[in-house]
Write a structure and sequence with these properties.
The chain has about 300 residues and is mainly α. About 60% of the residues lie in helices and about 0% in strands.
Length: about 300
């Protein structure tokens, strides 16, 4: 489906990558939870925020919700560049289908990086100092470069699971962006759609890269990395969000309590994704054991009258 979101900027024609390049399982029937044979990874070259930038508190005038999502977005440009490099470093010898999926994954992630760079600049223009968060992420990326490449890929599959879990929650529960400015909400939905589509690529690359490992060795690495990633992700995003809130003059225990309630109470994104987080540690886990592509169709069908806008 070729869909453009209303009231947004420009969109080049979506690109569908041919993934049926080798014999596979019957359509729509994953083998042992593997990536579905009929999966489509579509590169939607969408642009947002070119004509009208987001407001300071773009999410319903709520500084808590806005700060949390701004803190998330601040990590995406450097983080997604790391994902790309980690996956590309292990594509040698990949089967043709996985090779095609990796190409599509890279294209999607490049577009996500571009749009979050624009979004982060808009947050800075609205008065937030985003440079401190970016600098901390940059220091972390420098440390990551010193690690073995397979460790970076293990960190990537953990972080990709986080993005897929949150993408599912954002699309399944529209209340997360119900009161957001329309174009900014559309940007987050667009990102969520594509994160679901390519949620198995890094994991399949990890399975390919560790194909000669024992199951125990593979399980130990991916599980330890998920625990480390979870600790760092929650700690850093919590601190980043509080730092942005402090720039609004909002600090103290009441503010921390409101942020905690936002994350685990209502709408409670961290509470909602917890079962999917636990599933990562179960034997035989694969991202596509939970096929949630119906959320993509639903999200795109909400805009049946959208008109394609030629790219500038």
């Amino acid at each position: 489906m070729s869909v453009s979101y209303p009231h947004t900027g420009v969109m080049n024609a979506p690109t569908k990558f041919p993934l049926d390049v080798e014999p596979a399982a019957p359509l729509g029937k994953p083998v042992d939870g593997a990536t579905p044979a009929d999966l489509e990874i579509i590169v939607r070259d969408q642009r947002f925020g070119r004509q009208q930038k987001p407001g300071r508190w773009w999410l319903g005038g709520d500084p808590i919700a806005t700060a949390w999502h701004n803190a998330l977005s601040a990590t995406f440009p450097r983080g997604e560049a790391m994902f790309i490099e980690a996956v590309k470093a292990h594509r040698e010898g990949a089967p043709p289908k996985l090779e095609a999926e990796i190409r599509a994954f890279v294209k999607q992630e490049i577009n996500h990086t571009r749009e979050h760079v624009v979004f982060n600049k808009a947050a800075a223009d609205a008065g937030y100092d985003m440079a401190k968060i970016d600098a901390r992420v940059g220091e972390l990326m420098e440390m990551i470069k010193q690690r073995p490449q397979i460790v970076n890929l293990a960190a990537t599959i953990a972080l990709e699971h986080y993005t897929a879990m949150m993408a599912h929650e954002f699309l399944a529960n529209p209340q997360h962006f119900k009161h957001a400015e329309p174009e900014t909400a559309a940007m987050w939905r667009w990102h969520a759609i594509e994160e679901i589509e390519h949620k198995g690529v890094a994991y399949d690359t990890f399975l390919h890269a560790t194909r000669n490992w024992s199951r125990l060795r593979r399980y130990r690495l991916k599980s330890v990395m998920m625990l480390l990633v979870t600790f760092n992700f929650l700690r850093n995003r919590w601190n980043d969000t509080l730092e942005l809130l402090e720039q609004d003059g909002l600090k103290g225990w009441k503010v921390k309590g409101k942020l905690l309630w936002y994350l685990v109470g209502t709408p409670g994104v961290l509470r909602k994704i917890f079962p999917a987080w636990v599933a990562y540690f179960l034997p035989g886990f694969h991202p596509w054991k939970h096929d949630d592509r119906a959320l993509i169709a639903k999200a795109e069908s909400e805009f049946p009258d959208a008109v394609m806008v030629p790219a500038e």
